[in-house]
Fold:
Amino acid sequence: MPSLNLFTNVPVDAVIASDILKDATKAVSKIVGKPESYVMILINGGVPIEFAGTEEPAAYGELVSTGGLGPSVNAKLSSTIADILQTKLSIHSSRFYIKFYDVQRSFFGFNGSTF
Structure:
């Protein structure tokens, strides 16, 4: 169950959010190798963020998954999500951090139980 939580200081309207959610869902599913039905994406726009001493457009993300992550996958995810944020929100890739967590299945709750 990959879950990507994105925070940005850029206000995100409903149309842009929908585009980001769709693009990120497809990208995470394909790159991590999990069905889209398992992928959850959250976007939090208009969050106060200062990065490198400025409040210019920036973003932070955390991706948690039960398997499927590793150095080459993480690099591809970082690049792809950065491209989505650049295209949709004009956030330069140098103003985006993403943290990856590969967790055991028992650490993910779903449907009243764990995976």
